Amino acid sequence: MYTYIIISILVLLAIFLLKPLVLMILLKLKHGKKVEFFYVPIFGIWGRFVKAEKEHKDVMYFERRTILEYPECEVKINNSMEGSLVYIFYRPQHLKQILSEPMNYKKVMELPFGEDYLHKSLLFQKQEDWKNARKIISKHLEFGSLIQRIPYIKEQCKKINPERNIVSNAGSVVGNVISQYFFGEGNNQEFTDALGLVCKGFLTLGVDTPWRYIIRSRFFKTQSQSLPKFLIFNKEKALLAELGRLKDQLNQRIQEKIKNQDFKNDFLSAYIQEVIKQTITVEQVMHQYILLLFAGMDTTSNLLGACCYALAYKEGVQDKLRSEIYKVINNFDEFNGQNMNDIHYLEWFIQEALRLYNPATSLFERIAEVDHYVGNYFIKKGTNVVALLCANGLDPQIYNNPLEFNPDRWKDLKLEPFIFNPFSNGPKHCIGKYLALIEVKCLLVYIVLKYKVVRGLDTEPTWVNRFVYTIKEENFVKLEEIK
Question: Which of 63, 34, 19 is nearest to 377 (CA)?
Fold first, then answer.
């Protein structure tokens, strides 16, 4: 009897391991060079990430170089740790279709304990809830409205501490700006820093302990507090307790605003008026704030980190950027919404950093909700799909010497839509795009005029995925004040 049980287990294991490989081979035979598949038993795509980081100090090394290494390929297919296939699309015509038809997909990734802080936000809302929530804040994030916030952003930039890690520095600046915009008042740094750390703690659980994450998803279909208590570990319990404390503070501020009817030109006032109309809930308002805060802090601060990496490690660009800034303004105090776009090299520099080091290398993995085609590729309902945003950045048919950091390439570069998508594209593009760019421009101008950005390491740093594409070493650059 035990023999039959063992044989049955081995057969099931063989099916689990070999089924995705067989499906990949069949797709390769059908589509030829237009399809490349990468099979890593058990570990799936995680195995490729580990290999890339170990061998090349860049977790996205293989994904970023897809077009360089496979110029005829149109779609990559990996196996997941759960044993299914993952279709990875990156060609502009396929990205256009995926990003323009979001109703064909739902996000497959359940964030650890996300129902407590993000699952009711814009990131996960669908159809009418998403449209309503986006409509409430969209007018506040238009460029014309945002330039009025530049004086406050500049004030926060002056709080940069050269002894502190540059990404953490930027995170505090961005957190204060978002909270001021949300609440209509400043002095929120302690609260925003604490909430940012909690969110980062949750969102890196799947990276720090992937097996725990996968096993719980596989067998319990959830990462929520409905899990058996013995499967919620001490670190997670501590994060949940801190999140509860911070949400209580946030809810208290919301209730005070409702009670006092203290409505201003800020996000919270706009949301509370909808709460009073009962079109949204207080819990949804808190999730929207946490999304704006964490997404803004994490992506914008790491974009600034990437820019500072280029300033320190790419010869000549820092001096040129400083020189180009001085052609337009004499000091940081003169920098404003009117002359911001006159510093063309600043714009090109940020575009080049986004091309090579965009914190958002891909969108959340999606699962098809209907049978459909992406180009010539049939996507069956239930299939996992990834929109890879970083691969086109190294396409030699679009960019000369694509591995070179060269901001001047953007001077005359005209791109078709869906080739360059640092903030996604289509109806669900990043709503905070203009705020992020204004913040990064202010931070860069302040830093470049006041400091020389120098290497903090003797060797190249390591690029990793910690929810966003970022540099592993905290001390990868240093700020030396210009005398």
Answer: 34
